[in-house]
Each structure stands twice: as C-alpha cells, then as structure tokens.
Amino acid sequence: MVTMALELVRALAELVPLVLFASLERPTSLARIEAEFVLSPHRHELWNKLVWLPSVEAASQLDAMLYPYWPSPPRRHRGAPPALVMIHDLAYRLRPESVPWQQRLYLGTLVPAALRQADLILTPSRTSRDDLIALHPLPGLAERVHVIAPGRSGEDLAPGPLPPKIRPGFILAVGTLERRKNYLQLLSAHRLMTPRPQLVIVGRPGWGSDDLQRRLAADAEVVLLGHVDDAVLQTLYRSASLLAFPSLYEGFGLPLLEAMTQGLPAVVSSAGSLPEVAAGAALVVPPDQPQELARAMTSILSDPALAEELRLRGRTRALEFDWGRSARSLLELVQASVRTAPAREARLGG
Predict the structure, then answer these.
(1) Residue ranges of E strands in the chain
(2) C-alpha closest to that of 266 among 323, 249, 253, 203
(3) What is the DSSP string of 202-248?
(4) pLDDT tens digit string along 239-261?
(5) In the chain, what are the domains?
(6) What is the DSSP letter of 33?
(7) What's the CA gap between 244 and 320, in Å, rounded?
(8) 23/94 Cα distance (integer angstroms)
(9) pTM here?
C-alpha cells in the first residue's frame, strides 16, 4: 500500500502540478519531487481525517483530490473537489482474522462512506475490483471503479550486500509476518522437500505474529531477515532460486511483480489476485495444499528448462507494468471526470 501510494505520487508529479497534504512535516520519501505541500498541525490520523482535511480540501480550489492510501473523510464539505479513492485490498472483510480490530473498525466505517461519495474508486487489480463490487452492492458503483495497477521498479537499483549466513539456492519469501501470508503452510511444504534448501523470509512482524515467529525461528533451515532496504531486497531477488508466495489473499501482490522484474521464477497461490498478476508467468497452486506447493518448488529447482522458461515469461509479463503508464491512465480518468477545460492545467491534490 505504501509503495504504491508513494510511487504513484512520484509518477503523477512528472505530469501535473500536485498539492500534497501531510501531517506536521514533508515526508522524506517525497523529498525530491516538485509539489506544493500543505502541512497539518496534527499527527493523529483520525483528527486529520475528521476535522482538518474536510476543511482544507474544501478551500483548496483543486480540480480533484486523490486519496492513494487511506479512504477519504467520511464527511466532506460542500464545494470539496471530486474525490478519487484507492482501495488496495479487501483483507479486512475477506480475511478479518488477519487484521487488527482497530483497522477493521476504521476501514469498515470509512470505506462504505468513501464509496458512496467518491467520483472515482481505484483498485490495483481486476480481482480487487470484483471483490469490492461484490462486497458493496451500491447502485452505479461498478461504473466508478477502475483498475490502476502498480508499476515495476528496482531494475536500475545498485545491489546491496547479501546478508550473512545465506547459502546459494535458497527459496525467498517476501511479506509481513502474518497469518494471511500463509507462512505455516509454506513451512510445511518446505519440510516435505528433499533436500531442503534454505528458506529466507523478508518482512516485518505483523499483528499477532508472536507464535508464527517462534515456529519459523525454531527451524534451522529458515532465516528470518525482518525488514531489509531496497538494495538488499533486490540482491535477494537476484540471488534466490525461486519466490514462494502462497498467500491466502492479495489485492495485488507486489513481491510477485518485483520477482518477475528480476527474472526470478515464482510459485504463487491460486487465491486473490496472484494468478491475475502472474498471467501464466508463475506456477500456481492451491493455498491449502502443502504437498502441491512442495512439488511445484521442487520442479523449479530440479528442472533448469522450466526455471528458465519462467524467468523469461516473468520478465515479459513485468514489462506490462509501468508507473508512468499508470499515472497517465489515472490522469486521463481525472480529466474525464472533472472535465477540465483544455486551456487550463489540472491541479491534483493528495
């Protein structure tokens, strides 16, 4: 979610004047873009969403207001610019056991309100679009929901050092340590493999992950790296034998795109958007069958021809995802929605 929001804003800044609304200070991650910043005196998300943003967006005289991360305020003032709201996934509805109750309450309150009042709703995949429409049967909603996919990145990034104690031929898994990522099924599948390659997992601890961390850390063939910077992550993608991504649900699944960009073969689950993103460029297995997952991973490790075919397919598929193209598509939607006069340059807030 964070990556998509930041990269989309960076790409939009190349195309249109931006006014960015932020809490207290200019984000360091957006330090190099040219934009006007409007800073809130408040840190708390709820205060900004309920009080500050409704007031400042109504007075902004912007052509449109993009909410690329969290939903728009539940109550917007008359005269506020048209709202574009990105809904990244529906995990809080489809996999509620993996989402903290506070976030379920927050999104369960704000998303329906945002869907009723937004001029455009954006999702990162057709799967998440279909999920959104099925879970919120509002009149006319389908006509307002559009897919804006993420872009690839990391191709030109200088590689970082490979973390110590990692052996060649390792299997890589990337994602927050939480139940939705299905790491215990991955661990079961990994234990069925003979011989067992190292399993390297990258990701911050998630909500309720203490037991999961203990069970993963207890296995001598599992390496938990936690969070790593982008340079090290790219080195891991370039050095691994395959990506294992058996998630129970993804609105898009950015690690799969990152792996395909680097030519890393992947095994993904048949759940959520992963088959759509792979589009035949990865092996797909049911998320609840560790034997099938083990068999797919073994086939890549033991069949160089298959691994090379998946590398080529992945790189070709990754070329279809481009941040500049996504930003242009979004801008076209904005211009069509607000009917900006040709002689006037649109100004976008977010």
Answers:
(1) 18-23, 36-40, 64-67, 83-86, 120-123, 145-147, 171-174, 199-202, 222-226, 242-245, 266-269, 283-285, 348-349
(2) 253
(3) E--B-TT-HHHHHHHHTSTTEEEEE---HHHHHHHHHH-SEEEE--S
(4) 999 999 999 999 999 999 999 99
(5) 2-151+322-349 (3.40.50.2000), 171-318 (3.40.50.2000)
(6) S
(7) 22
(8) 30
(9) 0.92
